[in-house]
Amino acid sequence: MKKSLILLSAICFVVIPALAKEMKIGYIDSEAILSQFSDFQEAQRKLQEEEQKYMAEAQSKETVLQTMIEEIQQQSLMLSAEARAEREQKVIEKRRELEQFRVDTWGEGGKLYTRNLELSRPILERVNQVIEKISQQDGYDMVFDAAGGNIVFALPQHDITELVLAELKKE
Known about the structure:
With 171 residues, this protein is mainly alpha-helical. The protein has helices at 2-19, 30-36, 38-74, 81-106, 111-138, 161-170; strands spanning 25-28, 142-145. It is built from six helices and two strands. The longest helix is centred in the first third of the chain and has 37 residues, at 38-74.
């Protein structure tokens, strides 16, 4: 019993100090990095241009639909029941086309979502590579992102955002 107590004490004296090594922790502000990184700004500009084109196309489709509805209302007294039903069916089809266009463009997995991924994925991968490089060079055990609002308090000297931005500008 006494031998195992001595062995346990010896292990504690060797293992605990090794485990108690001070961890080096840093943080970044990903929103600040992305807002100041020119490649990301350019990607956002391209995405906004494409979205403006889609918005113009949607507006055009809405105008066509509204014109069709107004024509039916204006000519309702002169149209036969058959002609009216036919035009109303065309309005329903145009409305479905418009809704499908909106889903295909702005919906989850839509054109803009996919394009955003295409444009931002390589940029985010590069940012993550730089964070990893700096973390390894400077011996950080962990790096958190303050942009999510989960860090309540951190000393400014642990903020490596500027280091990441400087490294990104070198590339």
